[in-house]
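Lecture notes, continued. The same structure-token format from the folding unit now serves as the input rather than the output. Read the line below as a description of shape only.
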């Protein structure tokens, strides 16, 4: 019986070591995971794919204040629920040609639509390219 108990204790100790090693190696792998993207790409398709992962503060940090900004507020409050921002000459197409204007439409703090314009943004978006972000929950 004593040999069974000794064997069982050794088995438990071995299992404890295996479990500890498994947990620690999982933590080490988490540290090696790619970090969240910190710079917003400027090429059209890459920009569209990445922009809704950035909040307004990060966008301003990289591109500065927008050339034009219109906010939609809840009536009777100062709570901004939607915004339209325009920047000039921040995005290029795949050939490296700059769009004159990039319009970002926000719901709360997230971009929901991107429009690239070949004009100064004062005109209709008839000669630009419009992208809508994938559907998500808006915190209204």
């Amino acid at each position: 019986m004593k040999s069974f108990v000794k064997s069982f204790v050794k088995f438990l100790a071995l299992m404890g070591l295996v479990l500890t090693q498994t947990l620690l190696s999982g933590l080490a792998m988490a540290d090696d995971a790619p970090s969240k993207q910190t710079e917003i790409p400027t090429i059209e398709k890459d920009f569209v794919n990445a922009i809704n992962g950035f909040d307004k503060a990060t966008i301003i940090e990289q591109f500065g204040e927008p050339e034009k900004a219109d906010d939609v507020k809840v009536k009777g409050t100062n709570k901004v629920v939607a915004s339209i921002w325009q920047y000039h000459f921040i995005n290029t197409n795949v050939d490296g040609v700059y769009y004159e204007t990039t319009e970002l439409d926000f719901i709360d703090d997230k971009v929901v639509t991107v429009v690239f314009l070949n004009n100064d943004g004062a005109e209709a978006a008839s000669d630009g390219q419009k992208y809508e972000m994938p559907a998500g929950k808006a915190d209204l």
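Point for the exam: Residues 44-132 form one domain.
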